[in-house]
Amino acid sequence: MTQPTIYQNYINGAFEASQQHLEVFNPANQTLLSRVPASSADDVERALDAARGAQKSWAATPAVERAAFLHRLANKLRDNVAHLARTITEEQGKISGLAEVEVNFTADYLDYMAEWGRRIEGEIIQSDRPKESIFLFRKPLGVVAGILPWNFPFFLIARKMAPALVTGNTIVIKPSEETPNNCFEFARLLDEVGLPKGVFNVVSGTGAEAGNALTASQQVDMISFTGSVETGSRIMANAANNITKLNLELGGKAPAIVLDDADLDLAVKAIRSSRIINTGQVCNCAERVYVQRGVADEFIARIAKAMEATRYGDPLADSDVEMGPMINRAGLDKVAQMVETARGNGAELITGGNVADLGAGFHYQPTVLAGCRQDMAIMRQEIFGPVLPIQIIDTLDEAIALANDCEYGLTSSIYTRSLNNAMQACRELDFGETYINRENFEAMQGFHAGVRKSGIGGADGKHGLYEYTHSHVVYLEG
Fold it and tell me: Residue 311 to residues 92, 275, 318: CA-CA distances in angstroms?
């Protein structure tokens, strides 16, 4: 039997042994994978001390030199794709192909953000006074706390650290308790590229201990968090005492609108992908469908057939599976309960609807529910599993009104051949992103941000980069 890996925190350029540990299990078969540090508040503070101590000299380093470290790290990741992808699959349950995509996309993201080393710009503003110049500089915030989710744990390291580092900040990362192994493997490779000590640090642990210590610390200048609304609210409360800048990507309940003139082949393929990719545990993928009455029967029949054909199981035991397990027992039980509640309230089960009997692991059948109504919890609350609730609508106006009637506002999508319909959706859907006739997946050069309870601030592209800076305006006479 393979012995669990023992990981160590990465603080001030060194790996440090810990006295207390958390155990990490494979969600597909519940085997023990590793033991990671259960960091104390003192561990967190030492990591922050290291980041604070390194920040001024790091900020003084030319941005193009800071960027060079990211390029070197990107190449390291590409040289280790197979190992890193397997680590992600083992602890998160993601299918191997998607895990490899995550690693390669992370490397590309590091390169993309590194290219901003020569592109960070300020402004010269016209003055009202003679002989005066007004300059706007962009400067680093200082020390960033990056708190990661478990669903795309590897990519989110880079999404937080790459813009932070290239703009002159230092960072302390706390991975999710569910999926910390990949973050320590990331740190192992980063340690080989010669990054100055203290610029990048990793401390694992619980939210109650390590997370609270990190988000309440006076040493933190910005908190970048991806996760649930509930945890985001607690982080806001912790940050309030120090008025710490927040960048929060929280929940989603993305509507997909399918109109009578839609290309149903495209709509079925894209929406099915949204529900099975990463086992439906993706905040920006379609979580509810509003289908126009004229194509409703055909769409429901076709999406149910496609979902039913999904191959699922343990990704490491069967390389042909398209969908792995849920992350843990709590996630599995939540999805099962939401489906049962919806059925009790009148939703019609078309396919799936049960915990999958695969022995060990947290597997749920791909599920389609028709006859859903806006007042049902399954149409309003985040499912985060392979379940697709469907409601029939008569007009685009009705669909947009129902789509906007939600506490979340991250992403949305519409399937139509009409430019007028597409443009109306652009004008009236109140979401951070809208995808037209394509799958819900953002580009690194875009800006991934939500409204309402989906978060504060955003990530990616120029606008995401500048989240990690503050402006300094200088008035110069002479």
Answer: 18, 13, 10
* pLDDT above 70 for 453: yes
Instruction: Give CA–CA dist 243/237, Å, rounded.
Output: 10
Q: Which two tokens stand for residue 67?
A: 């960027």
Q: Which amino acid is at 473?
A: V
End-to-end CA distance of the chain: 75
Backbone angles phi, psi at 452, to 5 degrees: 55, -135
List the beta bridge partners of residue 411: 433
Nearest by Cα to 30 from 91, 89, 85: 91
Distance (Å, rounded) from C-alpha 89 to C-alpha 178?
12
Whole-angstrom Cα distance, residue 464 to residue 357? 43
**What is the sign of the dihedral through the CA atoms of 7, 11, 15 and 18?**
negative
Q: What is the pLDDT confidence band of residue 447, given thresholds at 50, 70 and 90?
A: confident
Alpha-carbon distances of 326 from 151, 178, 287, 297, 389, rounded to whole Å = 10, 12, 16, 30, 18
pLDDT in tens, 248-296: 999 899 999 999 999 999 999 999 998 999 999 998 999 999 999 999 9
Residues labelled catalytic: 249, 283
Q: How far apart are CA 268 and CA 258, in angstroms?
A: 10
Average pLDDT, the chain: 95
What per-residue confidence (pLDDT) applies to 1?
59
Q: How far is CA 269 from CA 38, 230, 265, 276, 348, in A?
A: 42, 32, 6, 11, 22
Q: 332 and 362 in contact (C-beta within 8 Å)?
A: yes
Asked whether the CA dihedral 67, 73, 77, 79 is positive or negative, the reply is: positive
What is the distance between the alpha carbons of residues 84 and 410, in angstroms, rounded to a whole number?
A: 29
Q: State how far the Cα of 238 lies from the Cα of 223, in Å rounded to an integer.
A: 10
Write down the pLDDT at residue 443.
Answer: 83
Predicted TM-score of the model (pTM):
0.94
How far, in Å, CA of 463 to CA of 371, rounded?
41
| CA nearest to 171, candidates 193, 185, 156, 182 | 156
- Do 221 and 143 meet the contact criterion of CB atoms below 8 Å apart? yes
Q: What would the pLDDT profile of 116-157 be if each residue is shown by its tens digit? A: 999 999 999 999 999 999 999 999 999 999 999 999 999 999
